[in-house]
C-alpha cells in the first residue's frame, strides 16, 4: 500500500478534522512539511479539507528569501491560499533565538487561524521528532506526562493542533518526496551540533539504533503506553481530589497525608496543574512537599506562579489568585476613632465605638470598656510587632502570640487591626482578644464609659 492510501486511512481512523473544513497547514518548505502538504492535496475530494498554507520567513538564513519565493510560486500554481509572515531582523533577540522563533511561529499560526476562521492547525512532526523529544525529556528529567513528548492532537488556543505524521518515519517521508519528485529545502542549521536536538538526531539516536534497529517503533509504543498511564493517573487524582476537597476547593491536609508520598506528590501536582501551575521544577516540587509534610510548620504560603499562591493553614491547603488577596488599602488604615462611625474590617465586618449600647441595637456583638481620660482618643490601625495586650494579672501578651494561639492564617495576619489608646496600649485586637485595664475605685466618676461593637455583614445579607 502506498503512502497516500496509508495516510488517508490514518486520517479516517484518527478523525483529525472534518472533511471540507478549513485547516491551516504550517509549511517551512522542508521535506517534512512539503510531504504533508502534498499528502493533504492528494486526498480524495470526499475527505480533503480546505487548505490554507502558513509560512514564516524567519530571515535567519540567506536562502530564506528563496524559500518564500518558492512557496509563493508553489501555492499559486496549485491554487492554494497562502499567508506569509516575515520576521523582521531588527526583532531578532541576541540570545534564545530558537525559542523566540518558535513563539513567533505559533503566534502567527494562531492569528492565521482566527483570520481564516479555521479551527485546526496541522504540523509535519513525525516519528523521528517524537523519538527525539521523548529522549530529550527523559535526559532532562521531570514528570511522567512530559515523557509523552508529543500528542497527535491537543488543544491550541480556540481550536486544536494535529500531527497526523507521528506514525511515519523521516525515511518514509523522504522516500515519498523523492518518488513523487517533490522539491524541498534543507535547513543547514539542522546539522549544527551546538543545538541539543541536533545532537540527539545525528549522534545519540544513531547509536541507539545500532543497539536496537527498531528503536523508533519501541519509543512509539512507549508513547502509547505513557498516554494510557497518564490518563489513569489523571483519573485517580481527579477522584481523590473530589473526595478530599471541600466546597471552597480547599484540600483536607490530614486526608492528603494519609497517601503514600508518591501518591501525595501525584495528587498535589495534578491539583496545581489543573489550577494553572504547569512545568514546575522538580526541586521546587520536592521542597513544597517537604514543607507540606513538616508538622513543625503548621502555616506557610508559597508563590507557585506569578498569579497563584499556595497556603498551608494548619489542617488545609488552598490556592488564591493574587487578585483575591486583601487589598492594601485596609493595611494603611491608621486614624483616630470617631464615636458613632462604622469602620470596615475587610469585606465582611464593621466596627464602631459609641457612648451607649443602644447605638448597636440587638444584632451587633459589643463590649463595654471603661478608659481613663488620658487614654483618649482611641486610634484604629494595623498591628505592629511590638504590640502587647495588657492582661488581668498585670502581665502582657504579644499580639503575635494571640494570632498564633488562635491559629489565624498567615494570609490574614498582616491585615489584623487593633484599637490602641493615646498611649499606644492595645485596647482590643479586633475580633480576637480584649485588653484589661485595672480600674480605680472612683472610675465611675473619673473614667469614660465606651461601648465597642462589631457587625457581621454576612449575617445581615442572609
UniProtKB/TrEMBL annotation:
Localization of this protein: Cytoplasm
Keyword Nuclease carried by entry: no
Lysidine-tRNA(Ile) synthetase C-terminal domain boundaries: 378-447
InterPro entries named among the record's database cross-references: Lysidine-tRNA-synth_C, Rossmann-like_a/b/a_fold, TilS/TtcA_N, tRNA_Ile_lys_synt, tRNA_Ile_lys_synt_N
Any one GO molecular function term: tRNA(Ile)-lysidine synthase activity
Highest taxon, organism lineage: Bacteria
Catalysed transformations (reactions): cytidine(34) in tRNA(Ile2) + L-lysine + ATP = lysidine(34) in tRNA(Ile2) + AMP + diphosphate + H(+)
Main location as per UniProt: cytoplasm
CDD domains the record matches: TilS_N
Any one of the GO CC terms: cytoplasm
GO BP terms, alphabetized: tRNA modification
Annotated keywords: ATP-binding, Cytoplasm, Ligase, Nucleotide-binding, tRNA processing
This enzyme's EC code(s): 6.3.4.19
Family from the record: Belongs to the tRNA(Ile)-lysidine synthase family.
Function per UniProt: Ligates lysine onto the cytidine present at position 34 of the AUA codon-specific tRNA(Ile) that contains the anticodon CAU, in an ATP-dependent manner. Cytidine is converted to lysidine, thus changing the amino acid specificity of the tRNA from methionine to isoleucine.
The protein, known as: tRNA(Ile)-lysidine synthase
Organism the protein comes from: Limosilactobacillus fastidiosus
Gene name as annotated: tilS
Amino acid at each position: 500500500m502506498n503512502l497516500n492510501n496509508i495516510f488517508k486511512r490514518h486520517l479516517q481512523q484518527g478523525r483529525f478534522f472534518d472533511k471540507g473544513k478549513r485547516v491551516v497547514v504550517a509549511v517551512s518548505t522542508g521535506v517534512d512539511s512539503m510531504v504533508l502538504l502534498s499528502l493533504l492535496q492528494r486526498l480524495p475530494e470526499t475527505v480533503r479539507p480546505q487548505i490554507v498554507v502558513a509560512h514564516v520567513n524567519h530571515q535567519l538564513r540567506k536562502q530564506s528569501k528563496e524559500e518564500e519565493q518558492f512557496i509563493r510560486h508553489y501555492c499559486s500554481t496549485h491554487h492554494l491560499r497562502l499567508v506569509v509572515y516575515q520576521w523582521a531582523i531588527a526583532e531578532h533577540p541576541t540570545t534564545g533565538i530558537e525559542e523566540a522563533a518558535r513563539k513567533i511561529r505559533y503566534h502567527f499560526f494562531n492569528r492565521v487561524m482566527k483570520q481564516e476562521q479555521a479551527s485546526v492547525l496541522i504540523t509535519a512532526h513525525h516519528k523521528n521528532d517524537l523519538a527525539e523529544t521523548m529522549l530529550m525529556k527523559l535526559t532532562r528529567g521531570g514528570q511522567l506526562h512530559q515523557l509523552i513528548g508529543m500528542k497527535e492532537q491537543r488543544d491550541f488556543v480556540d481550536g486544536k493542533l494535529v500531527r497526523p505524521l507521528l506514525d511515519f518515519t523521516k525515511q518514509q517521508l523522504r522516500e515519498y518526496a523523492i518518488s513523487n519528485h517533490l522539491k524541498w529545502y534543507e535547513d543547514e542549521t539542522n546539522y549544527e551540533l551546538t543545538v541539543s536536538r541536533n545532537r540527539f538526531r545525528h549522534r545519540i539516536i544513531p547509536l541507539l539504533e545500532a543497539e536496537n534497529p527498531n528503536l523508533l517503533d519501541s519509543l512509539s509504543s512507549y508513547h502509547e503506553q505513557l498516554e494510557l498511564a497518564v490518563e489513569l493517573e489523571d483519573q485517580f487524582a481527579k477522584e481523590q481530589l473530589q473526595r478530599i476537597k471541600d466546597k471552597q476547593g480547599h484540600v483536607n491536609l490530614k486526608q492528603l497525608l494519609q497517601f503514600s508520598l508518591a501518591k501525595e506528590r501525584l495528587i498535589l501536582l495534578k491539583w496545581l496543574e489543573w489550577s494553572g501551575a504547569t512545568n514546575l521544577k522538580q526541586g521546587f516540587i520536592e521542597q513544597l512537599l517537604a514543607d507540606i509534610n513538616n508538622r513543625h510548620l503548621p502555616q506557610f504560603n508559597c508563590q507557585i506562579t506569578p498569579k497563584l499562591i499556595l497556603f498551608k493553614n494548619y489542617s488545609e491547603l488552598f490556592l488564591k489568585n493574587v487578585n483575591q488577596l486583601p487589598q492594601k488599602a485596609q493595611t494603611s488604615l491608621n486614624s483616630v476613632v470617631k464615636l458613632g462611625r462604622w469602620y470596615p474590617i475587610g469585606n465582611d465586618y464593621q466596627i464602631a465605638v459609641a457612648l451607649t449600647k443602644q447605638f448597636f441595637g440587638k444584632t451587633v456583638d459589643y463590649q463595654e470598656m471603661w478608659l481613663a481620660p488620658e487614654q483618649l482618643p482611641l486610634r484604629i490601625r494595623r498591628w505592629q510587632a511590638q504590640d502587647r495586650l495588657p492582661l488581668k494579672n498585670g502581665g502582657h501578651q504579644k499580639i503575635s502570640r494571640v494570632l498564633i494561639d488562635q491559629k489565624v492564617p498567615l494570609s490574614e495576619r498582616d491585615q489584623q487591626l487593633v484599637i490602641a489608646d493615646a498611649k499606644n496600649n492595645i485596647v482590643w485586637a479586633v475580633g480576637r482578644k480584649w485588653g484589661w485595664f485595672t480600674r480605680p475605685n472612683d472610675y465611675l466618676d473619673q473614667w469614660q464609659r465606651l461601648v465597642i461593637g462589631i457587625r457581621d455583614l454576612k449575617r445581615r445579607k442572609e
